[in-house]
Design goal:
Number of strands: 8
CATH architecture: 3-Layer(aba) Sandwich
CATH class: Alpha Beta
Helix content: 25-40%
Shape: globular
CATH topology: Rossmann fold
Protein name: AB hydrolase-1 domain-containing protein
Mean pLDDT: 86
Largest sheet: 8 strands, mixed
Strand content: 5-15%
Number of domains: 1
InterPro entries: AB_hydrolase_1 (IPR000073), AB_hydrolase_fold (IPR029058), Meta-cleavage_hydrolase (IPR052370)
Low-confidence stretches: 325-354
Organism: Panicum virgatum (Blackwell switchgrass)
Distance between the termini: 50 Å
Pfam families: Abhydrolase_6 (PF12697)
Structural class: alpha/beta
Length: 354
């Protein structure tokens, strides 16, 4: 008997629906983008009680050319719809079949388990993908920031499933000693959590200033408070624990190498995960990786340079033979020359966040 498809995901009601909310309006617009692009939302229950909500690509048309399945993993400050809505139509037009989950404790995904590690997130996503009817045997994975940590563990733990990898501003080579060394603008994980999970307008303003190379100048307090109320108040305890599990006792020597071909994309002005971490990751992976440095971009590459990011993702997955080092007009070599052999304190001229 053929496997039954997962039930459509229930859309959780928010307690803020009775008041006008610009953030909820935008949230609905992003959700509508997914529906209008033909994606379908499902909820996949797992054996340990976790539930992964994810969007499936449109059903393949009979006789159409085979699509390239790609798993898109969002970052810490977003969920599936907020991170990936602007990219759906260009990726679909290029022949990609996007699978877009909410990570555990983001969006509608949840788990009763106590494990907060990126490895657990990766295991949940892999289990959800394998539970889908007609699931692809192999797929590319794109991870932005925190999603890149999950993508890296996914590639290491499930090499038969992950064909190739794109890591966007993902500081997987971060060490907990980097905090004490002064690489970041925060002194400990608690301070990082207060900024990455902002509960006050001043915290969100600081976060935006550090995330964007060219932050917006006009940010009305009423919009900021509304955004915090809608987007930053769910699962704060669990997300804080995710941060502690991400950074505590982290050492580069413990980071396994992966065998998949990997494209590393980094904003030249990233103040959240500084460029030194991208160079460190390139050295760690060696010849199986390519590093692209995007000029005039900070950590929020997906917001500041969406067309360029979309082009890089599309080309790397559709045509694996493409090489990217020349895209930066020599800036890759210049940056290597500039940072090679530098101490962390020399790299820390702008005191990035985390």
């Amino acid at each position: 008997m053929p496997a039954q498809p997962p039930p459509p995901a229930a859309v959780p009601r928010r307690r803020w629906q009775k008041r006008f909310s610009p953030t909820l309006v935008r949230d609905r617009c992003y959700t509508r983008c997914f529906h209008s692009a033909g994606l379908r939302r499902v909820a996949v229950p797992l054996q340990d009680g976790a539930v992964v909500h994810l969007w499936l690509p449109p059903a393949a048309t009979t006789g159409a050319a085979p699509l390239h399945p790609v798993l898109l993993l969002h970052g810490f400050g977003a969920n599936a719809t907020w991170q990936w809505a602007p990219f759906l139509r260009p990726l679909l037009a290029a022949g990609l079949a996007p699978y877009v989950p909410d990570l555990i404790f983001f969006g509608a995904s949840s788990s009763p388990a106590a494990d907060r590690s990126p490895a657990y997130q990766a295991a949940c996503i892999a289990a959800a993908m394998s539970a889908l009817p007609s699931a692809p045997q192999r797929y590319a994975v794109v991870g932005v920031s925190y999603g890149g940590f999950v993508a890296y563990h996914l590639a290491h733990a499930f090499p038969a499933a992950v064909e190739r990898l794109v890591l966007v501003a993902a500081g997987v080579c971060l060490e907990d000693a980097d905090l004490a060394a002064g690489l970041f603008a925060v002194e400990d994980i608690a301070e990082a959590a207060s900024l990455l999970l902002p509960q006050r307008p001043e915290d969100l303003r600081r976060l935006v200033g550090l995330t964007f190379c060219h932050p917006p100048r006009f940010m009305p307090s009423c919009f900021i408070r509304d955004y915090i109320r809608v987007m930053c108040t769910d699962n704060v305890k669990e997300k804080t624990e995710l941060l502690y599990a991400l950074i505590s006792s982290r050492k580069l020597s413990d980071l396994p190498k992966i065998s998949q071909q990997t494209l590393i994309i980094w904003g030249e002005q990233d103040q959240v995960f500084p460029l030194e971490l991208g160079l460190r990751l390139k050295r760690h992976l060696g010849d199986t990786s390519e590093l692209v440095i995007v000029k005039n971009a900070g950590h929020a590459i997906n917001r500041e340079k969406p067309a360029e990011l979309c082009r890089l993702i599309r080309n790397y997955i559709v045509d694996p033979t493409v090489k990217y080092r020349d895209d930066c007009k020599g800036s890759w070599k210049n940056v290597i020359r500039r940072f090679a052999g530098s101490s962390l304190r020399k790299v820390d001229s702008s005191r990035p966040l985390l």
